[in-house]
């Protein structure tokens, strides 16, 4: 069973110079947990009430500080974040490793790799789903498509790390930990059950 910890960081506004604090419409949500096996996929739903730029960013590979202030140590597996329109199931975006210049993710102190994810895109008002999976278990074009490594509990062993699971492409043994933020949305929550081969 995947263990998930969730927290929310609300943006507050000073209104009219009166020092009154009020929650803004958009908020940032931080999620973290552990996978029981390489082929686990965890889903999260979020809502956007006004069209806006949203950001999905992981911190578990190289470490960093989440939006809620939680410090995440380096050493987690190489994550993939996939974004879907929840009403149609269509995949909107997917990110494995941040390829921006300059990078918007940290560099792992052991491998020197920037394998965390950073996906920023404009979305219309609606409901969306994010999938967290491990490299190279990429999502299909639709939320209903199966993940290609489903049922292969230790598929990353082919990368050759000593642990035999949660291996990255460099052959480094990683932990089963993941952590990511969903930024600038109205509501976000994990789906109750992670998918894997059980």
Word description of this protein:
The protein has 198 residues and is mostly beta strands. It has a single domain, classed as Jelly Rolls. The protein has strands at 3-15, 20-34, 42-48, 52-58, 64-65, 71-72, 79-85, 91-95, 118-123, 126-134, 177-185, 187-190. The strands form 3 sheets. Strands 1-2-11-4-9 form a 5-stranded antiparallel beta sheet, with no helix packed on it. Residues 9-23 have low confidence and may be disordered.
Name of the CATH architecture: Sandwich
Biggest sheet strand line-up: 1-2-11-4-9
**Helicity range:** under 10%
Along the chain, the helix and strand elements come as EEEEEEEEEEEE
Tell me the CATH topology: Jelly Rolls
Query: What's the CATH class, please?
Result: Mainly Beta
Largest sheet: 5 strands, antiparallel
- Assembly level: single chain
In the residues, how many domains can be counted? 1
- How much of the residues is beta strand, in percent? 35-45%
Tell the overall outline. globular
Task: Give the termini distance in whole angstroms.
Answer: 9 Å
Short summary:
This protein has 198 residues and is mainly beta. Helices cover 0% and strands 43% of the residues. Strand 1 (3-15) and strand 2 (20-34) form a beta hairpin.
Topology summary:
Elements: E1 3-15, E2 20-34, E3 42-48, E4 52-58, E5 64-65, E6 71-72, E7 79-85, E8 91-95, E9 118-123, E10 126-134, E11 177-185, E12 187-190
